[in-house]
Amino acid sequence: MLSPEKISRINELAKKAKQSPLSDNELKEQTELRQEYLSVFRTSMRDTVEHVRVFDPNGDEVTPKKVRDIQKRKKMN
Predict the structure, then answer these.
(1) What contacts 71, CB < 8 A, 6 or more positions away?
(2) How many angstroms separate the Cα of 16 from the Cα of each of 22, 23, 28, 33?
(3) Cβ atoms < 10 Å from Cβ of 50
(4) Residue 27 is inside which H or E element, if any?
(5) pTM over 0.90
(6) Each residue's pLDDT tens digit, 25-50
(7) What Pfam families has UniProt attached to this entry (predicted)?
């Protein structure tokens, strides 16, 4: 998870960019922070999807095969 300080800094840079152009250093920092944020988000989303199990109204598991294969490979089931 990204630290609150980094998230705050991302927001500060975004707000500043709306008001005036960012310096080269700020642009570089913003890009790095965004990339880090996206990496953390993607990892979290991937973990969530890989752990999901889907059931129909009858109680039968209908988890997509691709997800079941990943779960089986990672020995989650």
Answers:
(1) 50, 51, 63, 77
(2) 7, 10, 14, 15
(3) 14
(4) helix 24-51
(5) no
(6) 999 999 999 999 999 999 999 999 99
(7) DUF896
Using a pLDDT cut of 90, give the percent of the chain over it: 88
Q: Which domains does the chain have, with CATH numbers?
A: 4-73 (1.10.287.540)
Query: Pick from 65, 6, 68, 67: which is nearest to 41 by CA?
Result: 6
Distance CA 3, CA 73 (A): 31
For residues 1 and 74, give the distance between their C-alpha atoms in angstroms, rounded to a whole number. Answer: 22
Q: Are 34 and 10 in contact (CB under 8 A)?
A: yes
Q: Which amino acid is at 51?
A: H
- Sorted by sequence, the CB contacts under 8 Å of residue 21 that are 6+ apart come out as none
Name residue, tokens 């009858």.
58
